[in-house]
Amino acid sequence: MARVLAACATGALxxxxxxLLWRSPHWPVVLSGAVFPVGLIVLLRSxxxxxxxxxxxxxxxxxxxxxxxxxxxxxxxxxxxxYAAISGxxxxxxxxxxxxxxxxxxxxxxxxxITVTPGTIALLVEKDTVYIHCLHRPSDxxxxxxxxxxxxLERIWG
Length: 158
What we know:
With 158 residues, the chain is of the alpha+beta class. The protein has two domains: 2-53, no CATH class; 57-157, no CATH class. The protein contains six helices and three strands, in the order H-H-H-H-E-H-E-E-H. Helix 1 packs antiparallel against helix 3 (35-46), helix 4 runs antiparallel to helix 6 (146-157) and helix 5 (104-116) runs antiparallel to helix 6 (146-157). The longest helix is centred in the middle third of the chain and has 28 residues, at 60-87. The mean pLDDT is 83.
């Protein structure tokens, strides 16, 4: 029963993200997004997927903090990238950052947070290092502010 509830919660989260990304609560979008929870339940019942989520993955406070931090980083980057586009002052660089996350979903969410932020894109992950292309060369790679994101993702995904 707990696995079905985990599938329903994960499917509902994906469904909500689907509607949010389409920015439309109209019935075709909502109906097409129903594929996520139904598909997850079918895959779970057939044994093709197992959802062994840690209990910390259900902590809403950590998720709100994570998405709030990502939104703050995006807002700051929009202003900085807009200024760079207007002024023409850019100093691009590829930066190597040590990756402390062990879980694949944690790594995926970190790479998503990097790529969704204007002015940065995650290029490659090799063993314990992530390579990031930055529009503005940081004076110190730690100044990118990824340590707090990695800490949060370690707390959520272990």
